Predict the structure.
Amino acid sequence: MVVILGKYVTISVKVPPELKEKIKKLGIKPSKLMRKAIEEEVRRREVERIKGEIELMKPILSKISIEEVVKSIKEDRERR
């Protein structure tokens, strides 16, 4: 279930009753914990995706010399 509240949405998670009781006894704030875990997982997967894209571009980028890159940067700066 997803509910939109302002700039946030609600994502509900079902857990066994025993786990809910442990969370309560330990004073764990599930919303904060879930938010952090989701943010970390999203960040990890984004990094993996970017690494994969870099690997795909390596053969192309290896054909471009540093001198060509420097020249292109200088030309671009001069046009501004």
Q: What stands out?
A: Residues 15-79 form one domain. The first strand starts at residue 2 and ends at 5. The chain has a mean pLDDT of 90. The chain has one domain: 15-79.
